[in-house]
Write a structure and sequence with these properties.
- By secondary structure, the protein is mainly alpha-helical.
- Helix content is 65%, strand content 1%.
- Helix 4 crosses helix 21, helix 8 crosses helix 11 and helix 16 packs across helix 21.
């Protein structure tokens, strides 16, 4: 095209005039700004007349020199090294133990040589056949599995709607006294579930377990089906796990612009229609997440099921599994643990499939939003009455009875002066005729040993876990959409799929004997194994807290420091660490509370020198020393509340920021 025609064409098209170009520019310019031929984002050359696809250059071969440069790039880049080391550690701490446990279910052990031909280490299907197709299969697997499903289903059916309704009342309505009510509703998360089971026994215990409870002592006949078994297990777990749905749904409700609901009201929709067609679809992902968490936790729980089910021979999969881990054959217990892991994985896949096919709605956008409370009107007083009755029955009454039982000589015999004593707290051995085996807990060396183990376990584990969680969260947040970020999230999420008993079984199998010629030592019976198991099990919570923390820190701050010449570690020390301090403390307290009340995760690994307060309370309860078990449970509760209040006042820790 002639120069004068080109100028005329540019005037017609409204393009700015261009300076004179050389012959090479006129003939070969492809992506020069202002040129009529430009390279699109997809690698296509766009011109006025033709569209030419640009061929991608062939991928370079992986030569020895190129491989060396790639390795040096990883080794010299601190961030790449952090990613590499983290992936190796996660693989060794999660994947290898899981594969080792699976291998144990196909490897013949010494204890089965009497029943199976072969030698130690041979391949065998004996454990799976014993669990699935033997005469004992019903008692070993199918009946406990059914019990686990029943408890998990009805616990979810009660706790998820209950927590969601409470969240809606506290966030979206004009209910009075929300500050106090919010604290009371979230307290159950900090109370161990097994403590609720002990409190249940304090109220409903019958002579079936050797002593009377509060109601039986008052002359009120309590049937065994209410005091023990599935009804008691479901109600106790529901009063604990509703906190999961409350916390998650309340977070979702806070992000919803109330103008969406007001538009429905303008169109003539009543409150029920607004809840059904507007609010519920917006919070459905949070409800489904709470549902998955509740189902997976309730199916694999041990402490509640053992306290309320073992007394009448009602076993779930978790409680039956511990019997085989303790008494053998252990391979059967490992196989049952794999079944629990498979169930959790199926539940998670079902949830992802359900979320994947539903419509999604954005609730936070560039336009500012506001939150207008929905007036309850005449329903305000009934709702307040409902909350008062719920909190009284779920918290006040059971724990009042639990505390008072610690001062009783005989449980269920009333609170008269003749039946009250301080022996369970400060009594000496032999001082009371009924208690000849143990002194009061404050004079019992076992209690102080358990207290020391609990304190050092919670402090050491929560510090390590929270620190690792921040690093894992940093990798996940900065690597979103990249292979290493996705792989880190997937590996970290694996422990979440397993119940506490199943996860500890995996580590018990891994470290009960040396592996790889002693490269992996035997840690059976050591405090180190309990710390290691607790750290890895709580990686998902710490990593989630770390990811949320790191996403709130803009990458632009690091980029500016990088341009100024700051090294990776300098950026971490001067930018990331100071800004992540509050989130780190909140994540630490989340892990601290979880470990302080933990029983399911550590019960298989307990020895006389490593017992914690949770395990000691459980042991006393099983041996019939209900008052001392109650006293230790009260100490655990006070320990957790004191530490959380201290961290909240001093460092501003808030577990709500960690979810």
């Amino acid at each position: 095209m002639k120069p004068e025609n080109r100028k005329r064409l540019r005037k017609v098209e409204g393009l700015p005039p261009t300076r004179g170009r050389s012959g090479r520019d006129r003939m070969g310019g492809l992506d020069r700004p202002g040129s009529s031929r430009q390279l699109s984002e997809r690698g296509v050359i766009v011109s006025n007349a033709v569209t030419v696809t640009k061929e991608r250059p062939p991928r370079k071969k992986l030569t020895a020199r190129r491989l060396k440069n790639l390795i040096l790039n990883v080794l010299k880049n601190p961030f790449n090294m952090v990613v590499l080391v983290s992936l190796i550690v996660l693989f060794c701490l999660i994947v290898i133990p899981l594969l080792t446990m699976i291998k144990s279910t196909f490897t013949l052990a010494q204890g089965e040589l009497r029943r199976v031909d072969g030698k130690v280490g041979d391949f065998t299907l004996y454990y799976w056949q014993y669990m699935l197709m033997s005469n004992m299969s019903k008692a070993v697997l199918w009946e406990p599995l059914l019990h686990s499903f029943v408890c998990g289903f009805f616990t979810t059916l009660i706790s998820v709607p209950l927590g969601s309704v409470l969240a809606w009342l506290m966030i979206r309505t004009d209910l009075p006294g929300k500050k106090v009510l919010g604290i009371l509703i979230t307290v159950p998360y900090m109370i161990p579930s097994w403590t609720k089971a002990i409190a249940w026994l304090a109220v409903f215990r019958t002579p079936t377990s050797g002593a009377n409870g509060f109601l039986t002592g008052m002359g009120i006949p309590i049937p065994d089906w209410l005091a023990y078994g599935p009804t008691a297990i479901v109600l106790c777990m529901s009063m604990h796990y509703y906190a999961f749905s409350y916390i998650q749904v309340s977070g979702a409700l806070r992000s919803i612009n109330s103008e969406l609901e007001e538009m429905g009201e303008i169109q003539g929709a009543n409150k029920a229609q607004i809840l059904r067609y507007i609010t519920l679809p917006l919070i459905l992902p949070s409800v489904l997440s709470a549902l998955v968490m509740t189902v997976s936790k309730s199916i694999g729980t041990y402490g509640v099921a053992a306290n309320l089910g073992n007394r009448i021979g009602y076993y779930t999969l978790a409680t039956r599994m511990r019997v085989y881990i303790d008494q053998g054959p252990r391979g059967v217990g490992y196989a049952m643990s794999i079944v629990l892991v498979g169930l959790a994985a199926l539940i998670l896949m079902s949830n992802q499939r359900a979320i994947g096919v539903r419509k999604s709605y954005a609730t936070v956008g560039g336009k500012g939003g506001r939150s207008t409370l929905m007036p309850l009107g005449a329903a305000k007083k009934p709702m307040m009455a409902f909350l008062a009755i719920f909190l009284f029955l779920a918290m006040v009454m059971p724990f009042f009875v639990l505390i008072m039982e610690t001062f009783q000589i005989t449980t269920g015999a009333g609170y008269g002066p003749e039946n009250l004593t301080l022996y369970n707290w400060i009594g000496e051995a032999g001082e009371a005729e009924k208690y000849t085996n143990y002194a009061g807990i404050f004079r019992n060396p076992e209690f102080f040993s358990a207290l020391w183990n609990t304190v050092r376990l919670t402090i050491i584990t929560s510090l390590i876990t929270a620190f690792c969680g921040q690093f894992l969260g940093y990798i996940s947040s900065r690597g979103r959409g990249k292979w290493y970020g996705n792989l880190t999230e997937q590996l970290v999420f694996v422990p979440y799929l397993m119940s506490g008993v199943a996860f500890s079984t995996m580590y018990f199998s891994m470290f009960s004997v040396p592996h790889f010629g002693g490269l992996i030592p035997s840690l059976y019976g050591t405090f180190t194994l309990i710390v290691l198991t607790s750290v890895v099990k709580h990686f998902p919570f710490a990593s989630r807290s770390g990811t949320a923390n790191m996403l709130s820190i803009s990458v632009e701050l690091e980029e500016a420091a990088d341009i100024a010449g700051a090294s990776f570690w300098k950026r971490m020390a001067t930018i990331i660490v100071p800004l992540a301090k509050n989130g780190f403390i909140s994540g630490l307290m989340l892990v601290f509370i979880s470990i302080a009340k933990e029983l399911d995760l550590i019960i298989i690994m307990m020895t006389p020198t490593t017992r914690t307060m949770s395990y000691l309370a459980f042991t006393y309860s099983q041996e019939g020393y209900a008052q001392m078990s109650d006293a230790i449970s009260v100490c655990v509760l006070l320990f957790i509340l004191f530490c959380y209040i201290f961290a909240n006042k001093v460092a501003g820790a808030d577990i709500g920021k960690s979810w």
